[in-house]
Amino acid sequence: MLHTEVATSVGHIPSGLFIVTVMDAETKKIDGYLASWVQQVSFNPLLISLAIKPGRPAYDLIKSGKVFSVNVVGDHDKTFLKHFWKGYDPSSNPFQDIAYETAPHGGVTLLQAKSSMECQLVDSLKPGDHEIVIAKVVSSTLLAEEARPMVHIRKTGMDY
Predict the structure, then answer these.
(1) Does the residue 158 lie in any domain?
(2) Which of 28, 74, 123, 135 is 20 to 30 Å apart from 60, CA to CA?
C-alpha cells in the first residue's frame, strides 16, 4: 500500500475534540490546547490517555503532576473552539474571553464545554513525535447533558 493511502486511512479514525486545560496554582496562570487524541484506557482505575507534543502549552504543568482538565467540546456551542484552533500567544491570557471556573481538585472547567474531567498524571511514554500521557480521572462535571460530543475526522493521518 502506498504511503499516501496509509496516511489517508489513518486520518479516517474518528476522534473527539477536547480542550485540555491546566492552572499553575502558584501563579494562577491558565494554559491549554486543542486535543483530538484522547481515549479511555481502563475501567478500574478509570484512566484516559492523551497525546501531547512536547513544547505545547500546558505540557510542562501536566508533566509536573499538576491536576489538569479535559473539556469535551459539544455540538451545542463551538464559539470557544475557534480560539484554540488558531492557537494563541502564550504570553497573553488565552482565557480572558472564555468562561471558566476552578474545579474541585484545581483543574479548569470551561463552562461552554459539554463536560469536563479533572485528571492526574499516572504515567507517560514517548513512542514518536507526541508523548502519550496516561491519567487517572479524579472528578467530572456534566455541563450540557443534551449536547453531543464533537467528532473530528481528518483528511490525512499526517496532520491535525
Answers:
(1) no
(2) 74
For residue 128, being part of any structural domain is answered with yes
**Residue 145: all three cell numbers together:** 447533558
pLDDT tier at 137, thresholds 50, 70, 90:
very high
Amino acid at 143: L
Q: Largest Cα–Cα distance of the chain, in whole Å? A: 52
**What is d(CA 28, CA 96) in angstroms, rounded to the nearest whole number?**
13
Which residue in 138, 126, 158, 154 sits closest to 70, CA to CA? 138
Mean pLDDT over each residue of the chain, to the nearest integer: 91
CATH number at residue 27: 2.30.110.10
Please list the residues that pair with 48 across neighbouring strands.
Answer: 40, 135
Q: Does 1 map to a domain?
A: no
pLDDT bracket for residue 96 (50, 70, 90): confident
